[in-house]
Amino acid sequence: MECPFFFCDSETLTGSRVLEKHKFNLLEIQECLDTYGLRKDQAEQSLELIKSTIKQQSLGDGGTSTAVSNEEQKLDLCRRLYSLIFQLILLFENYVKLMDIFRSLEGSPQVSDISLQLCSLKEQLNHALEELENGQVSPINIDSSKPVIKQEAVKNLLEYISGQQYVKAVQLVRAFR
Known about the structure:
- Helices cover 75% and strands 2% of the residues.
- The protein is mainly alpha-helical.
- It folds into two domains: 6-113; 116-175, no CATH class.
């Protein structure tokens, strides 16, 4: 599931406090993601410790005290996996909160959901990139002797995109990187 794309004016964002909610929620998601990474590393360390203990036991090292230690290691791994799963649940809950923030704006007349248009545009741009990479299209001629103003390049880019000339749009962007 991808985040939706929507367009609205700045007054709508600030007036409904969506921007602040969005920022706060993204911070929560980042914190959950960081903690998830930490919990994942801890679980992997516990698993590696168990693997090394089992390997030592198979080689004949250890005794009855190792069996007790092995059980403690397994219990520790279970605790760490539980923490990892809990963190993953928190991450999903925060993602759902983020989607709810967007859904709260959905009914507003000042907001337009442009997800479908952007997904279609993304597919068409990817197709244009494939055509360029496969050499199916000849490059456009850009006169490098004449300096191009940024506003003129942006205007040309908008014309290419609105005219569905995606190959030219990609070539123009590549030429001015």
